[in-house]
Amino acid sequence: MRNQTATQLLFEMSRPGRGTIVFPESDVPDATSLPAIDSAFLSVAPLPLPEIAEPDVVRHFVNLSTLNMSVDSHFYPLGSCTMKYNPKRHERLARLPQAATSHPYQPEDQIQGLLSILFEMQNMLAEISGLPGVSLHPAAGAQGEFTALLTAAAYFKDRGENRTRVLFPASAHGTNPASAALAGFECVQLAASRNGFVDLDELKAQLDERTAVFMVTNPNTLGLFERDIAKVADMLHKVGGLVYIDGANMNAILGKTRPGDFGGDMMHYNVHKTFTGPHGAGGPGSGPIAVRDFLAPFLPAPIVAHDAVKNWYSLSTPAKSIGQVRTFFGNVGILLRGYFYIRTLGGKGLREASENAVLNANYLLSQVKDFLEVPHGDRCMHEFVASARKIKEQTGVTTMDIAKRLLDYGFHAPTVYFPLVVEEALMMEPTETESLETLDAFATALRAICSEPADLVKGAPHTTAVCRPDEVNAARKPVLCWSAPNC
Amino acid sequence: MRNQTATQLLFEMSRPGRGTIVFPESDVPDATSLPAIDSAFLSVAPLPLPEIAEPDVVRHFVNLSTLNMSVDSHFYPLGSCTMKYNPKRHERLARLPQAATSHPYQPEDQIQGLLSILFEMQNMLAEISGLPGVSLHPAAGAQGEFTALLTAAAYFKDRGENRTRVLFPASAHGTNPASAALAGFECVQLAASRNGFVDLDELKAQLDERTAVFMVTNPNTLGLFERDIAKVADMLHKVGGLVYIDGANMNAILGKTRPGDFGGDMMHYNVHKTFTGPHGAGGPGSGPIAVRDFLAPFLPAPIVAHDAVKNWYSLSTPAKSIGQVRTFFGNVGILLRGYFYIRTLGGKGLREASENAVLNANYLLSQVKDFLEVPHGDRCMHEFVASARKIKEQTGVTTMDIAKRLLDYGFHAPTVYFPLVVEEALMMEPTETESLETLDAFATALRAICSEPADLVKGAPHTTAVCRPDEVNAARKPVLCWSAPNC
Amino acid sequence: MKPGILKMPGFCSLLPNHWSPVIYIGHFPMPYLFDTPEQRRKMFEAIGIQSIDELFAQIPKELQLTRELTLPQPVSELTLQQEMEQRLGQGGTSLKTCFLGGGVYDHFIPAVVDEMTARGEFYTAYTPYQAEASQGTLQAFYEYQTLITQLTGMDVSNASLYEGGTAVSEAVFMAMRINGRHQKVVFAATLHPEYRRVLVTYFARLGTELVELPHTNGVIDPAKCRAVIDSETTAIVIQQPNFFGCLEDVAALTEIAHEAGALSILAFDAVSPGLLKKPADYNVDIAVAEGQPLGTPLQYGGPLLGIFTCRTEYMRKMPGRLIGKTTDRKGKDCFALNLQAREQHIRRDKATSNICTNQGLLALRTTVFLATVGPLGLKQMATLSHQKARYAADLLTKIPGVSLKFNQPFFREFVLQTPLPSADVLPALAVRGINVGPDLARFEISNVKDWQNCFLVALTEKRTRSEIEHLAKALTEVLKS
Amino acid sequence: MKPGILKMPGFCSLLPNHWSPVIYIGHFPMPYLFDTPEQRRKMFEAIGIQSIDELFAQIPKELQLTRELTLPQPVSELTLQQEMEQRLGQGGTSLKTCFLGGGVYDHFIPAVVDEMTARGEFYTAYTPYQAEASQGTLQAFYEYQTLITQLTGMDVSNASLYEGGTAVSEAVFMAMRINGRHQKVVFAATLHPEYRRVLVTYFARLGTELVELPHTNGVIDPAKCRAVIDSETTAIVIQQPNFFGCLEDVAALTEIAHEAGALSILAFDAVSPGLLKKPADYNVDIAVAEGQPLGTPLQYGGPLLGIFTCRTEYMRKMPGRLIGKTTDRKGKDCFALNLQAREQHIRRDKATSNICTNQGLLALRTTVFLATVGPLGLKQMATLSHQKARYAADLLTKIPGVSLKFNQPFFREFVLQTPLPSADVLPALAVRGINVGPDLARFEISNVKDWQNCFLVALTEKRTRSEIEHLAKALTEVLKS
Ligand SMILES: Cc1ncc(COP(=O)(O)O)c(C=O)c1O
Ligand SMILES: Cc1ncc(COP(=O)(O)O)c(C=O)c1O
Predict the structure, then answer these.
(1) Residue-level pLDDT, tens digit, chain C, 481 residues
(2) Which of A427, C381, C418, D120 has fewest C-beta within 10 Å?
(3) Angle (CA) D462 D466 D469, round 5°
(4) Which amino acid residue places its CA nearest to atom 9 of ligand 2?
């Protein structure tokens, strides 16, 4: 039933002279009194964009979409990504005119509704994190990290300190070191781990007056809560450093514990994960940060302020702000969806969401641990990391093979080969918005795969449109865009 | 990649205690001063509706949708149905508040915009048909037929005539006789045809003072323009009868000729076909009728009238109206889409649409006629009827087999076994919104199928989720709804 | 449509050279067409023609239209959008607080319903004739039929009729097929006046006698019914809650009908089974409803959804499409149209109805709606609507001179009588941002005094306490001035 | 959330008996959760726990929150919808006629764009890491990359960055990686002031000297550029048309940069290639843009779309994700992430950028947008915007005392100077239903006199002649009073 022609490339579908009328003819006379643009600035050749009739545009994208797995269509237990249900009510609400079409330079008196909501969102994120200073500005988690590190740098500079090093465990997400480097810090990775936790001794050995920030994901990327996190924070604070909590895993602890309560000084949220963004096939996200009071004056601009007397919302710049890290206010479209989510669940609902996320993960763990090694024990937070190391030794079937074979069963694969500290890692995060039935079906499939003939699994996927793109050759001679056959 | 669990029946997915909060708690106190409803009227048991969490509702319907072919995803050359592209702009415009949410009892001063558009639509349909009296009231083509016949009946009654018979050719669509019967007429089917056209001699023989209406589709259901239609009309008018044009095939003749110009006294439009409804997997449609001036006083109520002096639009009832055939004004949501379509194309565009519909059909005919019999010649209007009679004789492969096999190639099947006057009929209507490439790909597939091994074709479809439902047994012991396994 | 950018004098000077006017003038592509001139040539050749006109030579020359249709000039998507935002962008129920009733209501529609039914695979498909290419639609409609039987308690539901009013008339036709009586139909005076109008249009011409059962204080008195119904009566048509919002003794009326060998046809409020008895509890034979409250936007009254259900024994006499479960060649469960032999495309003039295109997409909306709100949600809808109606009635009847027209319990709407003509009251309320109604003067309803001072007030779960209180305040004001 | 219907005193009496309160009290299901009590028991058993608390014992007791988060009470979908319609239902660009510019614009978005990107398979998927389960996304992004190279004439496009401003800074980082120079970056004073702010935030701390190229009458004088750029300069950053709407001699500036071994980075208006030269025509090394005008709604400035392109030779130094065409095991063409070794999840602190989540859905919007409008549509957009801007400038400068700040040709926006402070003029225009701006006083822009009396006026294809004339009339009025 596949429509083959509709998934040709747009460029192959193009025929000169086709197309759709979208715009009207001009209704204004030419302003002949004004000088014309010099021809040196004018286009020298027609743009080679494809010409496609609207009906074919539609058929193309409708058919393309069906080549995707997605939360709307499939269980998608991608660890570290919190692929929870994206409520349809959010999409409708985000289309309301003031939300969808406000111009960033529109006067404040025309957008009081929107600003009031963003103000509430700041407060809600402060409450959830236990960190009072919030900036909604960063575009995604990675930019949140970067922004928070700049904030920390400004704080240290303001105190006349020259702290140059950012530390993180080996299990850290790649954005942690990348953001630290971008912010001009020296990166120090802690090699060791104590059963998946930060090794306090190694940490201690690395701490000194050069230490600026220790970045740690909590729950960490193994799905474990860093039980010594308070001690870690003490150690950092003793040497004058700060603790950065990578909040990618906040979905495990909403209303159960707060970064500000367990020693974090700064954190980012991934609104597209924890507060169900959605993910958009790779974005957009939103990465607000929350910081302790003494860091708040350094937060990026703008912040929404509220004059309670006049009941007036306006943009403001913190006293010692690091400035802007992007154009305009922030990823408002995603922040609003996060706001709708928090409003829908309330405090109790957020806690229940986390409880169920953790319950689902532990249940799934209980169902797979007898046929799949789970190196870090049989308790986890919202996700856990299994390992196909033994299977690989025995049969040659790798984590990648298992991941691909799951697609044949109608399930998206878990995150594979991350975190780097676990061999043949399979990182599973079911989220709270999946049913017991789905978890059981998934576990059953996984169990079946683990005892299927190695050839079958290594040949997977068998039911998808394509099977195992050759990435090695692709990287050698990259083809990154279509070009007309004759040139 | 199929998600199997998501396409379980809703009822199988249900678990007691699941569900979604849609509504808030009550914000009003109980009006204790009013008597309560007697318990005799109150529900005696909880409704057995399924309880499903919202995320699973979404996954269910998203996955179900992918088991359909549709215009948005596939070429859908279903004859007589005009499966043309459904413009996305219509969907957006139909959501505008006055269009989507006006209550039928809302005062006229609040819906002047909507009424003015419906008024224009009446005028546009009058112009396109050449018949000045228009009612937008009927819910679909079949109801249009019924309504027009009642209108004719009222007209005859008003003239003191007792005309009891409605005539139609054997190639007529099933709704024609069904509507005539519903309206209380005696049905007379003309058996013969002259190469697909109405046989004037037979018609003549049937005409007398009992004749009320002759219903004819033009272009007819063989895709031919009834070339003697003017003569036919003359014959009818001579005996005091009326000519009803079934407008299902209007897509062939927009701006090229008009029912009012070729002798029709009444007609219906299928807005969901000609003016790209859309079809909605079986509706809703809209079946406005257009009639000659002398029939206009009998049209159903309400009609939109315009007071040009006050520039005021209001609902009105024609002088001798037959009354209402349904609740409220009409299928406004579909009428609006038709209006948007006509506005987008204008007079020239509608003509070009018909020209291209006819061009595409003739091109497709030219591409299939060498391997598939086309009994009524190698010229057609917007559709043509091929026959697999010879193939069936030679190989046993039937029209149904070919239709099913087309699905494997990623094409929806043509209309099959209609009209009844062609053996093993395959009725193909490509519409104007398909490209040459698509027509070529379809013809190539059809050609391939016609020379495939009979077993392969008779076993088709091979790539769909199911293959040849058993309709015979199903009709013997119908299972028309799910029931809980234990009762 | 010609490219305006090239028509403006003096503007050509601004265009880069390569944009030579010839490319676009006279060949501005129509929005949904494909053929390029070159492709056209190829097609002409394959067909063996020189021009499009040759194809239209099938139409006798003297019948051909020699001018262009007189229609508004074509418009671009942008222009149409801007114009329609002007003309349709304001208004609808959101313009004023909506207390309008009379068969369709301003209920809430969860976003899930809109999003799922906006999938092209659903709304751009045709009637599911090719089962293998339509399993999505077929399963959804099978689910719809099941949900409607769960809602009504009836045995069988079809896959939709046009709307509530035609469903009533189709039910009467079906009753005639069942008991062979064509002479007489008895209907309650409390039936929706538009349903009644449709009945008249459908049956007047056929010589069927339509007998109105008068009401007493807003409801039908079963005792009076007994006097009217006889052995020639096909069926009795009742509405629950009735057009006035009051509750009928459907069980008693049904029993009387059955005693006379007539069928009992019930038009019910689709939301009511959330709180009230369902049709099957009254032992009726055919139950129909306007399905709009269950997920369909008002759209000025159309398209709507005709719900149609009956007892198993009458299944083969039903109008409209039916989806059945069956198995495929490999024994796999699947779905297909069933009992098609009843339908017009097979049975033609002997068909059980002339309906072809039905209300598929609205049936899908209702399927998604019921799956989303579930039994708890439907109960909430019904209970909230009822509770708010009670609160509104209580507040409004405290206004001097204002009373309930009928001293009866009601479900979610009620007839209010005021000292002034509704023709004055309703516009005055509209000025205050409130729509109530319909004004009952617009209908031909017999046996009611002071009709011109009466109107309906309907409540749904959407109306808030402050809106209700605002209505009471506004009405007080209006009646004072 | 407790079931209100049960909380109201006296109301229980209305409920049918079977609705015993115990079913709902305390177990009103949360909207997106599934587990029934029975299922929970089953899961507890499988895990080997008695209560949820045991799972959270991983968190030291003293760190656990012992109270509920202080957040607004949960709300139903209906309540949220009603509240948000109140708070967000009015406003946006439709509130006033929008002549606002400054990097994002009120362009038209065809319905096709909204409908296609509303498909759940696109917007609820993650970054396409599993190629076989993401061919839809991957092909669409490959098409996006191609469309952007066609638009710009550049060799390579990535799959998006956050937005135009960060794209500029990422381009500077990339230039540093290419020529190894970190000391100095030269940027045009005519660069968007928010892009410049981002540059400062990104590079100030790194000790990079940021040198502003002053403008002369609204554009950069290449001669003056030569004096500033030197062998320590990483790159020059130019904007075309610049922030004032004027056209820069990008070719000359690029040549000067290249002579000094510096790279030329161009931020261009994404619509401009419809009428003006494309970035590659100027021989620049890196071209970036804010992609919002091509199909993304304004959303108060985010999410937006960072377009990022460069020459082939710099491909491996690019930031962000890249989709490549390749073949699968059976030799079939397909798509997959490519050159991932540049990215943070592989290269970590040595990555070419820290970006992970990018702007996928906006890239998809732009893909659908460009496929829909095609080359003709883009040309129309650019030409109409330009023509209307000219008409507006012509009308407005006929008002006494009003003039173009810079005597330069412009593309689609221009700086207008009036005799009054913009802080007074803009609100007065807003009262008359018009938004213009931004007021240039809000930015730190050097070297301009009477800045406080200046503001931007931007045009798109959406603005009609009568709106432009209304603006002229309104401004005349405002300046008179
Ligand atoms: C643990 C962790 N940290 C940081 C990030 C980066 O966040 P973003 O993708 O929003 O930039 C991710 C996202 O994958 C993550 O999983
Ligand atoms: C020729 C013809 N007449 C009438 C009809 C009935 O129209 P509708 O389905 O709108 O009731 C159809 C629809 O299939 C048709 O093809």
Answers:
(1) 333 333 333 333 344 444 433 233 333 457 888 888 889 999 999 999 999 999 999 999 999 999 999 999 999 999 999 999 999 998 877 789 999 999 999 999 999 999 999 999 999 999 999 999 999 999 999 999 999 999 999 999 999 999 999 999 999 999 999 999 999 999 999 999 999 999 999 998 899 999 999 999 999 999 999 999 999 999 999 999 999 999 999 999 999 999 999 999 999 999 999 999 999 999 999 999 999 999 999 999 999 999 999 999 999 999 999 999 999 999 999 999 999 988 898 888 989 999 999 999 999 999 999 999 999 999 999 999 999 999 999 999 999 999 999 999 999 999 999 999 999 999 999 999 999 999 999 897 766 778 899 999 999 999 999 999 999 999 999 999 7
(2) C418
(3) 110
(4) C357
Predicted interface score ipTM higher than 0.95 = yes
pTM of the predicted model as reported, rounded to 2 decimal places: 0.96
Task: Please tell me the distance from the alpha carbon of residue D170 to that of residue D161, in angstroms, as a whole number.
Answer: 9
User: Any alpha helices (H) in C397-460, and if so which ranges?
Assistant: 422-431
Beta bridge pairs of residue D391 = none
Of B70, B74, B65, B114, nearest in space to B94 by CA = B114
Tell me if C4 and A27 make a contact (CB, 8 A cut-off): yes
**Could you please report the per-residue DSSP string of D389-428?**
HHHHHHHHTTSTT-EESS-S-BSSEEEEE-SS-HHHHHHH
Helix ranges (DSSP H) in B370-425: 389-395, 399-408
Do the strands C215-216 and C219-220 form a parallel or antiparallel pair, or are they unpaired?
antiparallel
Helices (H), C69-213: 77-88, 111-117, 120-123, 135-152, 164-179, 193-204
Q: Are D212 and D181 in contact (CB under 8 A)?
A: no
Is B55's CB within 8 Å of A464's CB?
no
Question: Three-state DSSP class for C421?
Answer: coil
Cα–Cα separations (whole angstroms), residue A383 to A355, A431, C319: 12, 8, 54
Instruction: Note if the bond before D438 is cis, omega within 30 degrees.
Output: yes
Half-sphere exposure of A203 (CA within 13 A, CB side): 28
Residue A260 neighbours by CB under 8 Å, 6+ apart: A129, A130, A131, A132, A290, A292
Indicate the SS3 state at residue B161. coil
Cα D284 from Cα B296, distance rounded (Å): 70
Which residues, at least 6 apart from D449, have a Cβ–Cβ distance to it below 8 Å? none
For chain B, helix (H) and strand (E) counts, in that order, are: 16, 12
Residue type, C345: H
Give nearest CA residue, ligand 2 atom 7: B141
Residue identified by tokens 């409801």 is C219
Determine which residue's CA is closest to atom 16 belonging to ligand 2. Answer: B80
Secondary structure (3-state) at A194: strand
Atom nearest to A273 CA in ligand 1: 10
Under an 8 A CB cutoff, do B87 and A410 touch? no
Check if D51 has its Cβ closer than 6 Å to any atom of ligand 1. Answer: no
Cis upstream peptide for D29 (omega within 30°): no
Q: Across the interface, which of C14, C108, C376 has its CB nearest the CB of D78?
A: C108
Of ligand 1's listed atoms, the one at least distance from the Cα of A143 is 11
Paired strand residues for D215:
D220
**Are D94 and A357 in contact, with CB atoms under 8 Å apart?**
no
Write A314-317 long-range contacts (CB < 8 A, 24+).
A314/A108, A314/A115, A315/A108, A315/A115
Phi, psi of A8 (to 5 degrees): -55, 165
Mapped onto helix, strand or coil, the DSSP state of residue B147 is: helix
Please give the full DSSP string across B328-382, using - where no structure is assigned: SS--HHHHHHHHHHHHHHHHHHHHHHHHHHHHHHHHHHHHHTTTSB-TT-S--SS
